[in-house]
Structure formats: structure tokens, C-alpha cells
Amino acid sequence: MFSRSKTEMLYCGTSLLLVTAALWTTGDGCWGTPGCQIVDLSHTLDTESIKLPFFPDFHFTVLTQGLQPGGFWLEYNKFDTPEHISTHMDAPVHFFKEGLKLHEIPIQRFMGPGVVIDVRGKVDRNVDYRLGVADILRWERIYGPIPDGAIVFMWSGWDVRYPNKTLTFNSNTIEDSRTWHFPGFHPAAMSWLVENRNISMIGVDTPSVDYGPSTNYETHQIMCKANILGLEIVNNLGLIPASGSFITALPIKLLNGSGGLTRVVAMFKN
Fold it and tell me: Which residue, 24, 89, 139, 172, is most buried by CB atoms nearer than 10 A?
């Protein structure tokens, strides 16, 4: 129902490039102008980085670090990491066989206007809260329709729990996914966005766009079948406005990747 072909998505990417150019022309891309604020929405990648417990661990190895015979300093390292760890992007192929792989996604898909939907109050009352259609419509009543090419974030306030794994998964037995409790996007809200708005991606400050108790990852399935990108474990959403920011989310260009580490940056006028 929601599937878009790769050809359609490449055409969509060209259209979004025009949207992106228009945004920069109108000043939403404010680099170098007075009052321009830039916020890093990414967590640092290290051995404490959050990932799903069944993924392999991150490893960092120092290969060379020290003064060389020629009198100069030299340092280089290697690292081994799963795709889906710390702040990262889900490519559509993650949950849809015909979806775009990470290296196939048009570069213009990685930027667009930011939409931050605050559900912290509801999460305080229900840690398994799922952002719903009503939350989207409430945002639109205040700020207007979600713009084309938008990156729609759920702000639950969950990033303050990072990198404590017990708090992030809200479980004392994180190896058992049946015990996870954290907020995410409701599948109905994801379907509504696919059917009614032309967004580029969604993002969450939790480990998954699906809420903790999910067993079939329905939001992931709907998102990926529509070739919409997903950002997970985002940081600092409380430092950017609900509307009016310009987001750049650049993942590693990994051949055939189902996802990858991503530096997410917000830019907006103060």
C-alpha cells in the first residue's frame, strides 16, 4: 500500500533538492548570518554507545600513537561497529527488501526543515506512549502544515537517560526485548504521514521508531516500505525550536548498508 519504487524515490529526491534550494534561499539555512544557531543532535560514538543488545559490540583500537623517528606526532586507529548504534539512520532496506540501500539514497534526502513534536508530558504519564495522529494535528494547528521534505522528530526527553542502558531500555533485563519500555511513533501516525504529507524522514530520541513493547516493528515496516528514512537515538532535541530549523543528517556512505552512523545537525535563527 505504501511502497514506492526506487525510481519514484530518485524522482522524489530531485523534487526535494528544489525544496532544499528554496529553503536556503529563504534563509532557513542561516549559515554565516547574524543570530544563526547550530546544534549537534548526535551522541558520541564510543564503547558505551547504545545499541540493541543482540547487536555486536563497538570496538576501538589504537594502531599508532606517538612521536615518530622524524620528530613528528602520528596517530591513527581502527574501529569495528554494527550499523545501528548510537545516533544512526535506518535505510529503507532495513525492513523492506526492495527499499533503498544506504549508498543509493539521493544526497538531497539527507536535509530538510525540522519538525519537533513534544510528547514529554504524555511520556511522563506513560513510558510506552506512541506519538499519534492527534499529536501531529496539534502541532499543525500551531505551526501550520508539515512542510515538504521535513524531518519529523518525536521529542520524548529520553536522551537524558543516555548512555545508561538500563534507563534507556527502561529494563533491568535488557537482553530480553519483552521487558523493554520506551516511547516511539504509532503505526497509525506513520501511515498518516505517508498518506498525507511528503516527508523525508522521522526521528526519535529513543532506541527505535517503534515503541519498546513492539514485537512486529510495524512503524519500521510502514516507514521503510514508503522509502522514508529513520533516525534513532537522536540527542538535544530540547535545544532546537519546534518549527523553523533546518536539519542535515549525513550517514556514512556504506555500500549496501541497511543503516549507518549519522551526524545530525540543526541550524536555525535565534
Answer: 89
Measure the N-to-C terminal CA separation of the chain; round to a whole number of Å.
41
**Beta carbons of 156 and 206 less than 8 angstroms apart:** yes
Interior angle at CA 212, CA 211 and CA 216, nearest 5: 75
CA 113/CA 237 separation, integer angstroms: 14
The answer to whether 268 and 241 have CB atoms below 8 angstroms apart is yes
pLDDT of residue 8: 57
Grid cell for residue 58: 563497538
Residue 5 pLDDT level (bands cut at 50, 70, 90):
low
63 Cβ contact partners less than 8 Å away, ≥ 6 residues apart:
76, 77, 78
Q: In angstroms, rounded to a whole number, what is the distance separating the alpha carbons of residues 184 and 132?
A: 9
Q: Is residue 135 scored above 70 in pLDDT?
A: yes
pLDDT grade for 9, boundaries at 50, 70 and 90? low
d(CA 107, CA 251): 10
Place of cell 543528517: 249
The residues near 153 (Cβ < 8 Å, ≥ 6 apart) are 114, 115, 116, 117, 202, 203, 204, 205, 231, 234, 237
